[in-house]
Amino acid sequence: MTELEAVLAVARHGSFRAAATELAMSTSALSATVARLEARLGVRLFNRTTRSVSLTEAGAGFTAQVTPALSQIRAAFDAAGDAGQTPSGTLRLNMHSGALRMIGPLLHEYLRRHPQMQLDVVTEGRLVDVVAGGFDAGVRLIEQVPRDMVAVPIGSALSTAVVGSPDYFKGNRKPRRPADLSRHACIRLRFASGAIYRWEFQKNGEALIVDVNGPMTLDDMHGMRAAARAGIGLALISDAFVREDLAAGRLVRVLADWTPPFPGLALYYPSRRHPPAGLRAFIELVREMNV
Question: What is this structure's pTM?
């Protein structure tokens, strides 16, 4: 293993000196290590001059085959070493407040299973760089996950619902199609960027976007639900927020045939060879809950 690591380091850097620094070895010790492997193989792996080091044809073929194999061996050692470890420490997560409401039971189960872990959850509307922000992972809608991240779906598909209170509908006819919303008071949503959300609908392959108007604009779904319950107007909101209100009759849903399900939430994290034990345990729980 030491000899193979030495060869790959020299191949990466094209320099014995730089490779020796990476491996915390002296240049002479590194050169001797590579020479021993070359002697065992009976072939020269590097062309050496006083100014440069380059792979021979045999060396290039050898390193191309060894690199993925050594990567798998390292991963096997890491996994075996961590197998008996109990997850401990702090797992930092970033998500929207709506996501926190939806995955709360998942977080509670995680802490029950791993009492030596602590969760540090930050909620914010804007999409952040989880690496730059010092987070282990984030939770967002699947469509918002950056392409360079590993994504693990959480739960099933989601859907939105246009809702209003029974009192509101006493004085207003229920809309039958999105165009009818022009005659209704609507509670608008402002994103963290400052942009106002334009209501999205779809039916039988037809997609519509409607700019609604109304007496109130909010940046929080809890506030939107409360305003809808108070009869201020109609709100387009995640159905997970209003399920209990709909069941209890505090809110009434309209335009249900125009709000089909869409891909839901995902846990996402940086692509890395071996995630920390705490994050790995959370990933395993998410996958288990999806079964």
Answer: 0.55
